[in-house]
Amino acid sequence: MTDQNDDELKFGDVVKAGDLKQALDAIAAEHGGASLEARNKVLARIKETNAEGRERARLMLEDDGGGTLCARRICHLEDVLISAIFDYASRHVYPVENPSTSERLAVSAVGGYGRGTLAPGSDIDLLFVLPYRSTPWTEQVAEWILYLLWDLGQKVGHATRNIDECVRLSRSDMTIRTAILEARYLCGDRALYGELETRFRTEVVEGTGPEFISAKLAERDERHRKIGDTRYLVEPNVKEGKGGLRDINTLFWIARYYYRIGSTEDLVKLGVLSRREYDLFAKAEDFLWAVRCHLHFLTGKSEERLSFDVQREIAAALDYQDHPGLSAVERFMKHYFLVAKDVGDLTRIFCAELEDEQAKTAPGLINGVIGRFAGKPKRIPGTLDFLDDRGRIRLAEKDAFKKDPVNLIRLFHLADLRALDIHPETLKQVTRSLRLINPALRENEEANRLFMSILTSPRDPADILRRMNEAGVLGKFIPEFGKIVSMMQFNMYHHFTVDEHLIRSVASLASIEKGQESGQVPLSTKLMPGIEHRDVLYVAVFIHDIAKGRPEDHSTAGAKVARKLCPRLGMSPHQTELVAWLIEEHLTMSMVAQTRDLNDRKTIVDFADRVQSLDRLKLLLVLTVCDIRAVGPGVWNGWKGQLLRTLYYETELLISGGFSEASRKERAKAIRASLIDVLAERGWSEKERKAYIRLPYENYLLSVSHEDQIRHAEFIRQADQAGHALATMVRTHAFHAITEITLLAPDHPRLLSIVTGACAAAGANIADAEIYTTRDGRALDTILINRAFDTDEDELRRAKSVSRMIEQVLAGETSMPEEIARKRTYRRKAKAFRVKPQVTISNTLSNKLTVIEVECLDRPGLLSDITSVLSDLSLDISSAHITTFGEKVVDSFYVKDLVGMKVTNETRQANIIARLTAVLADEQDEVRDRMPSGVIAPVGTTVRRSSRRRSA
């Protein structure tokens, strides 16, 4: 990818080739070149040189920060080692005084090694080039080299081929063609290698540019698809990810193949890239190489994924510092994503030039990468500045943006309005015209009208917004958005950067409005057609996290941004205040639904006081749904949807004047009547129906779906008929990657801890749990565990194994395995994350109960630890709400003392806080020692308890 200059890079500071060869010659002279003793000495010296050279490269990387330099230095070190090994093998082990024409061998580097850059943990790819066929001498020399490299501990990919084979295979295999394209001579017969270069150029490359370009771009697209077709994953793959080093390699391959150049800098001479663009390209490459080299040095292996557990250390190695609102690691990752975006911008510019060049010389590329250029572009109706070039927008004149900067917004509006793609040449001009987006354009009424039309488009607004963001227009036109472009949040909850999350939120809203998500979010889908303030909702969804990364709370700061931005977008004062309110409260509904007792009237009253109107309630619900669904895969689930629906319906009743105990009773009565009718249709006798319908509490009837109530009824009936005090049933949810285990058992205080411990013993990770109690003192618990197998057959077999473990433990037939007891003394903390433990006690969130809320880093056994402490403190847990946000949990416990009163004594409250804080920090070993042996709750448990279970 880059030129080598030994003097500039000071490769001698890493290793000196002459010194190593002299040392090996001395070994041969003393011990005999082919002796086993000499080989061992050679291996030891090579190992020493390799270790010292890599350590020097690491120290030089820390000193000068040059990522590309480091990759070249390691490559040069490898060159010296292989050349010395070849020289030793050919002169001292298998010397030939008068070699025949067949006894010639050229050793060349291919792959990344061939490009002259090598990461510390990368494989070494070699091509041994033969003139005709293999001979005993060439086989022996090649094997001696390979075995020594293997003994050195290196991973070596290799091939031994004659020139005819190289040419023939290159024609049919694009991988081999690419390898030989970037091959580099190392040692051996230079004339032989030169012959390969000449024949490859004339017999393979000549006239096949379109074919090669098409294959490489298709290969890139497939790679992006497999790894995640976005460059904004918060744990990116530095090598294979979108905007990573492999994308840079792809451009180099294409440029070298098509333009016959030796380095990317030659693209400046050809006019493909400007000097500024090339400098940006070089900086991007250098940064990515620095990250990759640090990653390999840090992990001691060929690790390409920039995972959370190494991001903080690499940020420190690259000397990033904390900044108000952003930690050092978040600043580092923001820089990473901006670099990845630069790679995408430069790719687009390069492809535009390549397409124009190809259009002059060829009818097109295969597979539709570059289509035929016959046919005159048509003018798009309503505009003089843009043309429709077979489904892609082109500029009628190159200075169209300069003449009217509003065209920078109009371009994307037309793309949305007419479902057109944008020509790469046009996007290149957009990138080069970003300086035209100034305060005057931002205040331009027409530009803002066009942008609002894009944002609220009934077609695919997220696609156009993403195109605007990729081109750099969105962040320039809305500077507040520009501040969060490529910003990541250093936690396990958010899967994407902030800008990508916001665009995905808009995509979620658009799909809901089109009715495409009725199965997942039925209430939001039902409400959307009746929402009056559609524009308000789209703006709020688009900017709800726009103030992330500031010292001030992002909801409060975001409302300030809204009050400034919305008038510019043409919104009225009323609309502006509504957007500001939605942003201020955009986390409220989610937190209330997941961390508060929705069966406590005070919860609903307090929430209704904040919402105040049905319009606001509808808007906030849809915003909340879009926000959660855009966080990342697997974050949204049916349980969260049910909680939000319950909160919505209860609040709607109160705001509309219909909330009362009588109302709840009437609803429960209607549900009971409906359930009785269904059971009658299923053949239940009247006696059975009357006996069963008295079992469920009202909360169960109002919270559980009708379908599940029927399943539970049949389940309990079968268990009673069989005389089973303990029973389980299972079913799978492949779409949600969840398996459901329903348990019927006699209720007792530590049931939850025992059940979660049994799940852990069986290797099942609990994702969710719904816990209810019947009036005859039995627990009806539904445990949701993460799916482990692709097929339902295998998953059901596993779930039944987990169920048997639960039954055996509850029946006293088995104790927790020693493995679980050992796990109790081990706390697997996510070292990359820091969550300060906090405990708060409130007597204002419930009229009858004290609410204890804890916030801390998640870990195995956390729920058992907390509930055990509360039990030791003689507190009765009425309901527990355990919610996981990535690595952080926010747990709320509604409690009372043993005489049924709130905890009001300040001394006792202080004691509760102290005891819980200690266990959250994992500092109170004696608390764990008093807990039942082997009880452990897996990471990520969410619990809903519908009725009160006494701890004593």
UniProtKB/TrEMBL annotation:
* CDD domains the UniProt entry points to: ACT_ACR-UUR-like_2, ACT_UUR-like_1, NT_GlnE_GlnD_like
Q: Which reaction does it catalyse?
A: [protein-PII]-L-tyrosine + UTP = [protein-PII]-uridylyl-L-tyrosine + diphosphate; [protein-PII]-uridylyl-L-tyrosine + H2O = [protein-PII]-L-tyrosine + UMP + H(+)
Q: What are the alphabetically sorted keywords of the record? A: Hydrolase, Magnesium, Multifunctional enzyme, Nucleotidyltransferase, Repeat, Transferase
Describe the task this protein carries out: Modifies, by uridylylation and deuridylylation, the PII regulatory proteins (GlnB and homologs), in response to the nitrogen status of the cell that GlnD senses through the glutamine level. Under low glutamine levels, catalyzes the conversion of the PII proteins and UTP to PII-UMP and PPi, while under higher glutamine levels, GlnD hydrolyzes PII-UMP to PII and UMP (deuridylylation). Thus, controls uridylylation state and activity of the PII proteins, and plays an important role in the regulation of nitrogen metabolism.
User: How is this protein's activity controlled?
Assistant: Uridylyltransferase (UTase) activity is inhibited by glutamine, while glutamine activates uridylyl-removing (UR) activity.
Q: What is its EC number?
A: 2.7.7.59, 3.1.4.-
SMART domains xref list: HDc (SM00471)
**Coiled-coil ranges from the UniProt annotation:** none
Q: Under which name does UniProt file this protein?
A: Bifunctional uridylyltransferase/uridylyl-removing enzyme
HAMAP family, A to Z: PII_uridylyl_transf
Q: Which residues form the ACT domain?
A: 740-822, 851-932
Sequence segments annotated as region (Uridylyltransferase): 1-381
Keyword Hydrolase, does the record have it?
yes
The organism named in the record is: Pseudohoeflea suaedae
One biological process term in Gene Ontology: regulation of nitrogen utilization
Domain note: Has four distinct domains: an N-terminal nucleotidyltransferase (NT) domain responsible for UTase activity, a central HD domain that encodes UR activity, and two C-terminal ACT domains that seem to have a role in glutamine sensing.
Query: Mind telling me which Pfam families this protein's record contains?
Result: ACT (PF01842), GlnD_UR_UTase (PF08335), HD (PF01966), NTP_transf_2 (PF01909)
Question: Recorded GO terms, molecular function?
Answer: [protein-PII] uridylyltransferase activity; phosphoric diester hydrolase activity
> Would the keyword Magnesium be found if you checked this record's keyword annotation?
yes
PROSITE patterns in UniProt:
ACT, HD
Source organism, top-level taxon: Bacteria
